[in-house]
From TrEMBL:
The keyword Iron applies. InterPro entries: DIOX_N (IPR026992), IPNS-like_FE2OG_OXY (IPR044861), IPNS-like_sf (IPR027443), Iron_ascorbate_oxido_reductase (IPR050231), Oxoglu/Fe-dep_dioxygenase_dom (IPR005123). It comes from the Eukaryota. Keywords: Iron, Metal-binding, Oxidoreductase. Residues 171-274 form the Fe2OG dioxygenase domain. GO terms for molecular function: metal ion binding; oxidoreductase activity. Belongs to the iron/ascorbate-dependent oxidoreductase family. This is Fe2OG dioxygenase domain-containing protein. Gene3D superfamilies: B-lactam Antibiotic, Isopenicillin N Synthase, Chain.
Length: 314
């Protein structure tokens, strides 16, 4: 899999080779690793510690924040309460999900959170005073990285680099902290850490705990290939919104996670898409008589909402 040096993204003449590397990764595998991503290790470690602390709360405390109590899937999902692969029986992970929020509360937070199809404010554990700030610090750092990625994806598609600027004004970005207990003994493929799925937004920025293998990607030969954690890198993988924008020129690849490591595993995906009110219309250069438009046009918000509903309908 490709490794893109994000530190080389900053100036126009060095962007082209990076964009070319991204183009080839997006067309062929839909997964890449980025180095020099700019998120301080300390920020990662604080988010990780906060997430471990959260997951070690008693189940009844965590269930107070049950993701099904909020209109748009903010809060806690317990083990086996989500199911990303409809053929499976549930995901062996617990998670906590939230969306955009300033670290310093602002007057219009509530209005922003309650606007539009994905409306719904975040919920936070009252017993862990540092949790919110620790995970939001990582969130904002990862959103900044995501903002740098959009111009590169635009260049990779031979579009002007500002193509996504007016479509990504409000970060439509959801983050999860995830905990996968180890699976021992024979593992039934229908009940694993997270079942085979493709992600819902444009791309995902994924931090995986070093030293613990679990993530796998389906290759063109339909074999599951390990995507191991590489210290100092993040995984970036494409989601279905990009498949829609590009009429499947960019691949949103199936992936899954199985934790057979014998130890608990933690990961932090952040799902980044265009603004929720933006229509997912195919980019004209990706449509031709040989490649007719494949998808019905819906807004990003409607799309994400439907996918989340299906995941938690289980
Ligand atoms: O935990 C992982 O490595 C993958 C998580 C994932 O695929 C997801 O949450 O969509
Ligand atoms: Fe995923």
């Amino acid at each position: 899999m490709h490794i893109a040096e994000t530190s080389r993204m900053s100036t126009a003449h060095t962007q082209r080779p990076v964009a070319n590397a991204i183009r080839s990764a997006c067309i062929n595998v839909g997964f890449l690793y980025v180095t020099n991503h700019g998120i301080p290790e300390e920020t990662i470690q604080r988010a990780l510690s906060a997430s471990k602390e959260f997951f070690s709360l008693p189940l009844n405390k965590k269930m107070e924040l049950d993701i099904r109590k909020t209109p748009n899937f903010k809060g806690y999902n317990s083990i086996l309460s989500s199911n990303t692969d409809p053929l499976n029986r549930g995901d062996l992970n617990e998670g906590f999900e939230f969306g955009w929020e300033e670290i310093q509360a602002r007057d219009d937070d509530e209005k922003r959170a309650n606007d539009g199809v994905m409306a719904g404010a975040n919920v936070w554990p009252s017993d862990l005073p540092n949790f919110r700030e620790s995970v939001l610090s990582y969130y904002h750092a990862a959103v900044n990285l995501g903002r740098k990625m959009f111009p590169l994806f635009a260049l990779a598609l031979d579009l002007p680099e500002d193509f996504f600027d007016d479509k990504t004004e409000d970060a439509a970005a959801n983050m999860r902290v995830l905990h996968y207990p180890p699976q021992t003994g024979p593992v039934d493929d229908r009940m694993i850490g997270i079942g085979a799925h493709s992600d819902y937004q444009c791309f995902t920025i994924l931090w995986q705990e070093p030293g613990v293998q679990a993530l796998q990607v389906l290759n063109k030969q339909k074999e599951w290939i390990d995507a191991p954690p590489i210290p100092g890198t993040l995984v970036i993988n494409l989601g279905d919104q990009f498949a829609r924008w590009t009429n499947d020129v960019f691949k949103s690849t199936l992936h899954r996670a199985i934790n057979r490591s014998g130890v608990h595993r933690y990961s932090i995906p952040l799902f980044f898409g265009t603004d929720y009110d933006v229509k997912l219309e195919p980019i004209p250069s990706c449509v031709s008589p040989e490649r007719p438009s494949k998808y019905e046009v819906v807004t990003a918000g409607e799309y994400v909402k439907e996918r989340l509903k299906a995941t938690y309908a289980h």
